[in-house]
């Protein structure tokens, strides 16, 4: 169960990261920068981390969500696909409004707190993350 949660979280986190990196590259909206930003966190914030380390920080959060997702789905035996999807979206939902405090706390340039296009990209990326949790669960459950 733990291995499945880690795998699903990694897969979903990588998909989210790649989506937001591609969006940032394509549009210039700094949603990937916001996703990886840790500059406001005491102790680790002042350090100039390479991008890959910041991505690992992001993946740690994604893995935690993946583990919780698999735990909940596993505890509620015989869940329908509809309930699995609902569980995934409910777990992911709190990450969407994080856009606002993360933007306000960021020291490096990130999208404006009222940038509706960036908010849309951020939301879309996280909804893709939620969908990746579900598809990852369906595919990897049989293999792990």
UniProtKB/TrEMBL annotation:
Keyword tags: Membrane, Transmembrane, Transmembrane helix
UniProt KW Transmembrane helix keyword: yes
Transmembrane segments: 6-24, 31-49, 55-73, 85-107, 119-140
Tree of life domain: Bacteria
Protein known as: Ribose/xylose/arabinose/galactoside ABC-type transport system permease subunit
Protein's organism: Priestia aryabhattai
